[in-house]
Amino acid sequence: MKTILNSNWSVLQDVHDTAEALKLHEGGLVLTDVGHQLSEWEPIDRLEHLQVLFAAKPYWGRELRYFNQAPWWYRNSFTFDAEAGARTVLRFSNVDYFCKVWLNGVFLGEHEGYSVPFEFDVSDALRQGEVNDLVAKVWSPWDSRIHGDAHAKRTFQVVRDLVKGTYEHDDTLVARDVNPVGIYGEVSFTSTVGPSFKGGPRITYALSDDLASAKVTVRGVVAAMEGGSARLTIRVANEATLAEKGLHVFDIAASKDGAAFEAVFEVPGIELWNLWDQGNQPLYDITLGLAGGEAQARRIAFRRVELERDDTQTVFHVNGRRVFIRGTSYFPDVYVSTMTRERYLRDLSTIKAAGFNLIRVHVHVENEIFYSLCDELGIGVMQDSEYNWTHPVAESWAERLTAIYEQTILMLDDHPSLICWICLNEPGVMDPGGRTHGYAMEISPGPRLYAAVVALDPSRPAIKGSFCFDDPTSGDSHNYTGSLQGAGVSYVDIDGTSEKLNTEFGFDAPGSIANLRLMPDLLKRLSPRPDQIEEAQNYQYRLLKYYIEHYRTQKYRPCSGYVHFMFIDLCPQSFYGVYDWWGTPKPALEALFESNQPVAAMIEMTASKTEAVWLINDSDRDLGQVTVTWTLTDAAGSVLAEGEERVACGPDCQVRVAGLAIAPDAARGPIHAAVVARDGRGMVVAKNRYRDMFGHPEHVKGHPTRMNHEYGMRLYSA
């Protein structure tokens, strides 16, 4: 029996942090007495981050700082009835960030983090048929220590003590005063009579050499048995066809304190899960049942992921085939508690339509329903840890980081969409020893964390330090040429360069002016002229298109993919997305439909000339004979070059259709181009266009050096 306790909560802020010493959790304290200065309980109508519940403007403003300057207390009084002899577990799905819990004055324990569920056996603490009092203390504090006293670089140098990448990232991403805090998700009691699982059993598998069958291992602990044995049944079925793949029975020796078990069985005739542009996404339901006790339903899929890395390449292989990554970063809202299944589905559907086959979840963890939807849609996931920039160098902090990331791995282990762990994001950007990447990668926490991740999950590759392109356990780069490098640097400066795998590039541009008008304070401080917003949006479009085509025309020579930063703005005033926070697309979206689809036709070019016409197929489909036509015209509409070629286009291929040598000519004005590819039936499989293809705009004035720190917002020219 499961009881959800998401209503009837009250909160108070303990402004002097004295309530624990005053034993508020014991329930005898009168909050209206003179002297102690405690607030009264205030009812809340739902469990969400407290800033969302109470702040008129939860995304910016110095008044938000008080949410984190003192702890908050939660209280819920309820009656509860369970069958005699039942084992009852209290579970919190999400508490941000530190938490202590009491039930009827009994201290149950504490937790650190925000994304991983935690639970307590409360069988002995519950009062059956009476009023119970559940109390939790929750806090998410600010940090004050600055590495090297470099206060002018606080954004990068603040020593983040929390294992939480969603705060103190004041680089027009998460505003200065935003540090989410509170209980959200679901609080529940589950009562079971008879044997029950202690936590969730872990399911792993090994594929046969021919990828046709899987040896599945289920490990766990059975609790609430006085002695004797428990019978475990495991049923496997294909989710789509409901075809039975086996029923397996195991006897487990159990005791009152619980008994560990390991169940191993074969699943023959499996279908493999693939990214959406590489095949299908068959999923399997696994039902774990204890005779006379608890049952759990799980969902997994079978696939093999490898990452081939050396000095010349960083290439993903899925089910034995190399895959070209077309990815985007995803951080849809700084308050994860606001996200719903419907919102995730909207975003993931548009991500897929824009041509992306992978998402990097950037320095945070999403709600679990997000990963389930990625499983269904065939979108791969790179999952970051919470390490971002500067953290304590003590080994005790490395232990905390490692423990929390290990919990994340175990929580997300079943999801086939998750194909890679990222241990550290941009390690050593502010290295305590003054060496690029050095301390974090070589001393702490990198070695400990990477070893722990590889040992815990050998089925997925791990990137030790994202941005460490020359590290043999990493291999990916970040490139903001023409963006964060500042004025005077153009995106065309990437001409003549190559990268193995880029996992960050992009440019931030404000979105819809109509939407920004809904936030008058923001719009007033941004004080843009309409042409400034248009200029920034155009630059974002041109930069993304140029980068994507630069990488795709170098497919496996050496580039194996890219991850754009990022898909949607995570708050109204953070502008990196191709969609704004309201979900309205920016002009940059057009670059994705032109250049980011699995099948693409494009012109290889530099700032000063064109090189060739290309047809690229990243999918698993054999398109057969494809006809590619191209036309280049000047400002007057006169044809400068045109052609048509019929070429074979097989799976995962790159075809140099024809050479093309055109250079800008001031006398002719802007040069425009169009490329279209049609299959043997005459159906368009790819199309692309170039407007003023050599008219590369200058870097937007004021970007990226000017921002308003209270709003956490980029400013452009004065």
CATH topology category name of the largest domain:
TIM Barrel
The tally of helices reads 11
Strand-residue proportion: 25-35%
> Which regions have little confidence, pLDDT < 50, spanning 5+ residues?
none
Count of the domains? 4
Mean pLDDT: 94
Please give the number of β-strands.
Answer: 37
User: What is the 3D shape?
Assistant: globular
Q: Sheet bearing the most strands, described?
A: 9 strands, antiparallel
Note down, in words, how this protein is organized.
The protein folds into 4 domains: 2-192, Galactose-binding domain-like (Jelly Rolls); 196-293, Sandwich (Immunoglobulin-like); 305-596, TIM Barrel; 608-690, Sandwich (Immunoglobulin-like). The model has no long low-confidence stretch (mean pLDDT 94). The protein starts with a strand and ends with a strand. The chain is 15% helix and 33% strand. Strands 1, 2, 3, 4, 5, 6, 7, 8 and 9 form a 9-stranded antiparallel β-sheet that branches. Strands 25-24-23-22-21-28 form a 6-stranded parallel β-sheet. With 718 residues, the chain is α+β, with helices and mostly antiparallel strands.
